[in-house]
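$ ./design --mode recover --in tokens.txt
reading tokens...
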């Protein structure tokens, strides 16, 4: 099934973020998605929370790691960001005490999720 846009939720920086980006890469490379919107946090609630600066830092470190495959992936991933095929979207909802049930009133995230589900043909 081809989905126009997918919405992974990276939660932690470091190796977990690397795994999230590898998944996002796979979704584009396998044509399972045309765009990946990575929903992160606007500020670090926990010390390991992934922020947009962590994505940039990870891509820089990976490009300079001296491993050809990792360097190539970092360049490809930076291109995805530059081309808008990957989008980092931070929302304050992730650092509020609100339960998910309050998402429709507290954030525009629910609209993004509804768009994604409609694209898959699921009822919302």
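writing sequence...
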């Amino acid at each position: 099934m081809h989905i126009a846009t997918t919405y992974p939720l990276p939660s932690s920086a470091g190796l977990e973020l690397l795994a999230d980006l590898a998944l996002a890469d796979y979704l584009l490379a396998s044509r399972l998605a045309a765009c990946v919107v990575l929903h992160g946090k606007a500020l670090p609630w926990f010390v390991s929370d992934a922020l947009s600066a962590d994505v940039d830092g990870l891509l820089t470190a990976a490009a300079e790691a001296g491993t050809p495959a990792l360097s190539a992936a970092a360049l490809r991933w930076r291109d995805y960001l530059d081309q808008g095929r990957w989008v980092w979207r931070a929302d304050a909802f992730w650092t509020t005490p609100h339960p998910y049930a309050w998402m429709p009133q507290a954030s525009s995230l629910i609209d993004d999720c509804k768009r994604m589900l409609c694209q898959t043909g699921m009822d919302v």
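exit 0
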